[in-house]
Design goal:
With 106 residues, the chain is an all-alpha fold. The protein is 39% helix and 0% strand. The protein has one domain: 2-Layer Sandwich (Alpha-Beta Plaits), CATH 3.30.70.
Length: 106
């Protein structure tokens, strides 16, 4: 999956190393949903370069090297849809309404 996931970076010099790194251990793939989720996701993850990430973000607290930034998040809804189709089958999703729904959303 890694090669397909990062296909847009295929011509970059780090592509092979990136795919090797991303397949070097377990991967926990998940789908988040909610209002403005891509924007919120990017805030929680931090910048691609950990040196530019804010403290309190995953990359800001846990990463030191751009080539080992430990986490991926889709940067657009379009990319999210493509990546979801790559990693998941439709029957793997469960639809539910969280008990906090009424407290969080108008």
């Amino acid at each position: 999956h890694e090669e397909q996931h990062y296909l847009d970076l295929k011509d970059m010099p780090f592509y092979g190393g990136l795919c090797k790194y991303m397949s070097s251990g377990p991967i926990l793939a998940m789908v988040w949903e909610g209002q403005s989720i891509v924007k919120l996701d990017r805030m929680m993850l931090g910048e691609t370069n950990p040196a530019d990430s804010k403290p309190g973000s995953i990359r800001g607290d846990l990463c030191i090297n751009i080539g080992r930034n430990i986490i991926h998040g889709s940067d657009t809804l379009e990319n999210a849809k493509r990546e979801i189709e790559l990693w998941f089958k439709a029957e793997e999703f469960v639809s539910y309404t969280p008990c906090t729904q009424a407290f969080l959303y108008e």
